[in-house]
Design a protein that fits this description.
With 191 residues, the protein is an alpha+beta fold. The chain has one domain: Cyclic Phosphodiesterase, Chain: A (Alpha-Beta Complex). It is built from 4 helices and 9 strands, in the order E-H-E-E-H-E-E-H-E-H-E-E-E. Strand 8 and strand 9 form a beta hairpin. Helix 2 packs antiparallel against helix 3.
């Protein structure tokens, strides 16, 4: 019988100000677009790398490997702006808020996380990193026209800037009420 496995991912926690802005955007979208499975605002985070199922006894080694690279990055800010949909805004399956990284620090930090997990033995992520905050998900054909109009109305959303001072390793537990996240480890950035 295989051992217990935990769903893990590295992410940046959002500030309370950004969470409040996300809550306002979601509320505005909810009023105009039924049929969306909304992510709880307190559960929204900026994912850097999803690891999948991992044995708990490997956590310390994975964290140490990633920390070596991440701790070389200085703290930085990124912007939280723009609302859109994947794969295309007119027929979205995912509703998101965009991340602006003019300094390139976020991409550099994500690359350090990616390098650490690959060195540990995880396969390299094939898709390029596209930073965003997932607000909700739709089933194909369910209210996509209405939500496309709502997204268009919030396309210029600007939630401001957020300072990044640490990277967190989270455990994700899927429950009937939605995913529940537990912060396991923190990697501080250079000040």
């Amino acid at each position: 019988m295989p051992g217990i496995l935990w769903r893990l991912f590295f992410a940046v926690e959002l500030s309370q100000e950004i969470q409040a802005g996300v809550r306002r955007i979601q509320q505005g979208l909810k009023e105009r677009a039924p049929g969306v499975r909304w992510v709880r605002p307190e559960g929204i985070h900026l994912t850097l790398r999803f690891l999948g199922e991992v044995a708990p006894e490997r956590i310390e080694d994975i964290w140490s490997r990633v920390a070596r690279g991440v701790q070389t990055i200085d703290s930085f800010t990124f912007g939280v702006r723009g609302c859109g949909g994947f794969p295309i805004a007119k027929k979205p399956r995912v509703i998101w808020i965009g991340i602006q990284d003019p300094s390139g620090s976020l991409k550099a930090m994500q690359a350090k996380v990616e390098t650490g997990v690959v060195e540990f033995g995880f396969p390299r992520e094939e898709r390029g990193y596209n930073p965003h905050l997932t607000l909700g998900r739709l089933h194909p054909g369910k209210g996509q026209g209405m939500i496309a109009q709502a997204i268009e109305a919030t396309r210029a959303a600007d939630l401001g800037e957020m300072e990044v001072r640490e990277v967190c390793l989270f455990r994700s537990q899927l429950k009937p009420t939605g995913a529940e996240y537990t912060k396991l480890k923190v990697i501080p950035l250079r000040s």
